[in-house]
Amino acid sequence: MALAHEAKGAGLMTIELALPFVGAWQVRNSPADRVPSHGTTRFASAQAIDFVPVGGDERTAPLTWRSLLRPEPPQRFPGFGRDIVSPVAGEVVAAHDGEVDHEAYRGLPSLGYALTQGRRAAAGWPALAGNHVTIRCAVGVVVLCHLQRGSQAVTVGEQVGTGQPVARCGNSGNSTEPHVHVQAIDRLPVEAAQAVPMTFDGRLPHNGEIVQG
Hints:
By secondary structure, the protein is mainly beta.
């Protein structure tokens, strides 16, 4: 169940969620370290957070000379295809599953990819979110983005429980490597929404932390 509570001194209502995955994941772009967490308030993303799946060594795919110079297939990353589960009980109100899982970009390729981000932003929310599942709960709306094409296990109108598998980790939309982007908003559509702060199992993890789902 999602709970809402007031953030200390901020006057903002915060949604309490469960972690939306299994296994070990590294925290990136956390609002615990910066707001807006992704450098923009567009598309109600000011309080969003990213989780990158890691292997048994708590690292993502090894960084090599090849990966510094060329794009990489997403299958090379340890968490590609790992289960994504619902962080909240609620109703699936949107689901998109048709975007390809494109190559990952690190090193020099990431610089070129960054230059095209404006084009994706201009194309609107679907181009940024890629494959995604949107769940309305009692106190807001939660969105899970960059999911693997063809992996969605839920349909619009379906009631889901916390911890229920909804899709798998992918690399669709505005994504440089396989990960899941989580954001909470006060209403739909995303273009008209306000960002809502989140905590996970009672706290908001910081950048670089390894969390276990």
